[in-house]
Each structure stands twice: as C-alpha cells, then as structure tokens.
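Researcher: Please translate sequence to structure tokens.
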Amino acid sequence: MNIHRLLPLAFFLAASLRAQDLAYVHNLAPDYMNVSPAEFSADVSSLSKDAAVRRSGRAPMNLTGDSGTYSFLVPSSANVAGQNGAFYKTELAIQTQWLSSSITVYIYAIPNNTSPLATPSVIAGGAYTLKGFTVYTWDNILESLGLGGAGYVLVSVDSSTYNYTAYSMNAWANTYTAAPNGGFFRTPVPVFTDASLFGADNYRHSNVTQNAANRNNLVVVNISSTSSLTINIRFHPYTSSAWTTYTVTLAPLESQQYSFASIFPGITGQGELAFNYVSGGSWLGYVVRTDNGTNDGLLELPYMCNVLNWPN
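Model: Translation complete:
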C-alpha cells in the first residue's frame, strides 16, 4: 500500500471534521424582546394538533438521540423559589442541525395559569439569530426572557423563513437548585414535539409516593390553540380502593402545576394516579416527585392505559 497516496485523503477528512466541530455559545442575548402575539400564534400551530389524530403510547422523551425538529415545547420551566430553601432554575440547550446561514428562532415563555391567546400581554418572548451546527445553552432560560415564576417554553424556527420546516434542532432541558440551599442532582425536563403529545387517551402512574420524605407536583398542559381541556386527575392509595378525583379545566395553551397536597389534602402513602381524558385537544401530563431533604426532583412519566372502564 502506498501510504503517500493516502495522506491527501487523510488531510481532507481531518479538515472536514474540524470544519464541522460544534461551536458553543453560552447565555446568548436575544436580538429583541416582545415578539408579536401573531408570530406566537403562527409558531404554536405546529404543536396544536387535533386529539383525534394524536395517539402517543410511548413516554415523552428528551430529543437526545432522536431526530431533531423545527419546533418543540419544554413544560415545567422554573425561575422561582421552592420549599425548604430551594430556588429552581431551568437550563436549556439547543443544538442547531443546519450548516447554512444563520436564521431567526423565537423562544417564548408562557406563565402557568394564564391564557396567552386571550391575554397576549403574558407572553414573554425573544428573537434569536442562531448559527448552524452550534450548541446554545442558557443557565436560566426564564430569566433570560425576563420571566419569574414557572411556566412552559416554546421554541420555533421563524415561520416566515423559506422552507422553515426543513430546519432541525435538538434540545435538552433540566431543572436544578444549587447547594447549600438544596439539590445535588438535576431533574430532566421532557422536550415535546407534536409526535409525543397525548390525545384522547387515559394515562396511568402506578407508583406515586406522597409522605413526609417526598412531595409531588402534577403538571398538565393544554396544547390545543382552539379547545379547552378537561382532565380528571384521580388517585387512590394502595391501602384503599376508593378513588379521589380532582377535575382540571384549562384554557387553550394554558399550563398548570398542581401540588399533590393541595388537590388531595390529607391523602398520603403509595398509590395509583390516573390522568383521565374528558374533552379537548392535544395535551400532556406527568408527575415530579421531590425529596424534602435535598430538594432533588424525580421525573415520573405516565403510560397510556385504555383498559375498559379503568378506573371505575
């Protein structure tokens, strides 16, 4: 073998790999804030699917290792004080998959317990110019968008970009609280695309534990931009066969986080929880269990369960 003939090829491959090394940008500031409600409505449309055609049987996953997408939603984002000395922040990372010129990407934050279409003033949003093949990270994405409290984040390629659905991004998110006020681990936050939303199905979580050592928060988000959502959240401890029901009704694109102790007062122990669909469009729901000693959270995702008459 003539090694000298291979050297030009080796140099070419090395140069190509270097050219495609990911760049890294930390806490990029927006080009401008207060993006228009009309742009938000256009960008959210990619996630607002009819529940009749949505049927997600798998647990929602972060986009790590999955095919990227031009639009995604990150629920349960936080920039807020919690119990036992905690202060929760949500870190967001986006990897752009294109190699072409920079394009505009909008990042929105919608506070919990608000109706962004009915009250557009609640929308916090920024326009960002993102380069291709670059990793962008934000230590506290809600703070970057000027929002305190908790809510969800929507990220979308500008819908006026030519062939905008062809642009692809991967994303990761986690919520954390720094020691010594609590927290040693980060809680992954699921990143949802239109393919991983819930539809007209029931979801089940068979290992909810509410006691002196653990507290739970239940998250429900209405992804429909046209329909209100009604969900029955039901729970029974394994020491009893009696179900307790709490009914949730959310406006279009409204998100809410419920403390288990507030909606099921006086109920403790290990048991079974159900998210029972009643009416509406696409939605999602899950549980975050938090250790009362360390303030570390554990993401607990339900699975689809449409057993006849369950629960009854």
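Researcher: Any highlights?
Model: DSSP finds four helices and 19 strands in the chain.
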